[in-house]
Every structure is written in structure tokens, then in C-alpha cells.
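Appendix B, Record 12. Input sequence as logged:
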Amino acid sequence: MIEVSELRKSYGEKEHLITAVDGLSFRISPGTVFGLIGPNGAGKTTTIRMMTTLGKPSGGTCSIAGENFGGTRDCRTRRKQGTYCTGFFRWYEAQTASCQSAPDRS
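Logged structural output:
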């Protein structure tokens, strides 16, 4: 289960405060396919970064499998839950294995 409650992220000083994520809440049950969609600048990447502890929220909480990730920088805790690859990660281009047909077992 993934639970996000009142997640917030703001940048800057009080006079020039920019809010990237403002009170986002959702729950994802195990086995559910979930996507964050929205226009550029909507806070999708910021939300994922906070959920994976790569960014510290200004407020709110995020828990994965009952473990609160709000603001922690403990990589060991994050790695127990999984990993995050950005859209700029060039994993496919770095692969050297080739795809071959399975042997015929008839």
C-alpha cells in the first residue's frame, strides 16, 4: 500500500514562494497500476522524488508498506522498497544482451 497525505513542496522565500505540490493525497492498493498525469510543471516529478526520498517535502506524509518516507534521506530504507529511474535514464541503450527465440520444445 502506498499512501500520500497532504504532501506539499514549496521553493523559495516567503516573498517569492513557489508551490510545486499543494496538499496532494492519494492511496494506491497493492496490485494497482497507477499513473501521475498532468501538464509540464504540475508537480509529477517533484511528487515522485519526495516519495522516493530524493526530495524532502515541505509538509505532509508518504508511506510505502506502512513505512513513513516523509523527509528521510536514509537510502537503505528507500532501497528496501524499490528504485526509481527517471525518464532520462538510458537503461535500454546500455543493455548488451540480445533477444533470442526460445528453443522449440515440441
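The longest strand covers residues 18-28.
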